[in-house]
TrEMBL record:
GO terms for molecular function: cytokine activity; interleukin-1 receptor binding. The gene is IL-1 beta. Belongs to the IL-1 family. It comes from the Eukaryota. GO terms for cellular component: cytosol; extracellular space; lysosome. Coiled coil: none annotated. GO terms for biological process: cellular response to lipopolysaccharide; cytokine-mediated signaling pathway; fever generation; immune response; macrophage chemotaxis; neutrophil activation; positive regulation of cell division; positive regulation of gene expression. This is Interleukin-1. InterPro entries: IL-1_fam (IPR000975), IL1/FGF (IPR008996). The keyword Cytoplasm applies. SMART domains: IL1. The lineage of its organism: Eukaryota, Metazoa, Chordata, Craniata, Vertebrata. The keyword DNA damage does not apply. SUPFAM superfamilies: Cytokine.
Length: 248
């Protein structure tokens, strides 16, 4: 009932006219929290902003949304910093996920060598499964609405997935990062971009992870069981590049 009421409230203000600024939300949010965030953002915009002309330009709208839509649980980003450093990726939130590939293989940490393996686990061995913390990033100059920059780490550990060049092809590694502040802000032109992947969703439950540093290379699992998680080209028939992420 609460969700239905919120949706009704959302419907009433999803289209507003404020000094010739027209806002229309074309897709319904996925949760009551999303509805509440949009309602609060629209009210703030209605009472806090007066346009200088007949319409806002793109960067002004982006600034407005930055100042109004960040949730309380998200790490705050100073607007002045956002404007002065448009090529920096800022970490906004971290959420733990359960992950499996499209063949229902789970992720298991292999110690020697240190790497993730994709394994079909039985009930008695499910304790071997590891979850991933997914850290979401934003950058003023990154405006791809279909993909989202993320960093991935093993939950409960200081091990992060990274993609670096070895020989002619990129490789996936696990790197220990004890100082998490190093990954709070990442320069788009720096070496730390090896920790960033572009999360793209296909349908309701399928996700792919493309290296930001090496475009066209994706995190993948082998068709065979008990093989390392590695990078591959999207059209590699011997690997799966689609995963299922379940928010915990």
């Amino acid at each position: 009932m609460e969700f239905k009421s919120a949706c009704i409230a959302f419907e009433k203000i999803s289209s507003c006219d404020h000094n010739e600024l027209h806002l229309e939300v074309t897709q319904h949010p996925h949760s009551l929290r999303d509805v509440a965030n949009i309602i609060v953002a629209l009210h703030r915009m209605k009472h806090s902003y007066t346009p200088r002309g007949t319409e806002f330009c793109d960067h002004e709208l982006l600034d407005i949304m930055l100042e109004n839509v960040f949730e309380e649980s998200v790490t705050p980003v100073a607007v002045d910093t956002w404007r002065s450093k448009p090529n920096v990726f800022y970490n906004t939130k971290v959420i733990e996920h359960s992950v499996c590939d499209q063949d229902q293989k789970s992720l298991v940490l292999h110690q020697s060598p240190l790497e993730l393996h994709a394994v079909i686990l039985q009930a008695a061995s499910m304790h071997l499964k590891v979850n991933l913390n997914l850290s979401t990033y934003m950058s003023r100059n990154f405006t791809d609405s279909q993909r989202r920059p993320v960093a991935l780490s093993i939950a409960g550990k200081d091990l992060y997935l990274s993609c670096s060049k070895s020989g002619s092809n990129p490789i996936l590694q696990l790197e220990e990062v004890k100082d998490h502040a190093m990954l709070k802000n990442i320069d788009a032109n720096g070496e730390m971009t090896r920790f960033l992947f572009l999360k793209s969703e296909q349908g309701l439950s399928t996700t792919s992870l493309e290296s930001l540093k090496f475009r066209g290379w994706f995190v993948s699992t082998a068709v065979e069981d008990k093989r390392p998680v590695e990078m591959c080209k999207e059209d590699d028939s011997a690997h799966f590049t689609n995963f299922s992420f379940t928010h915990l």
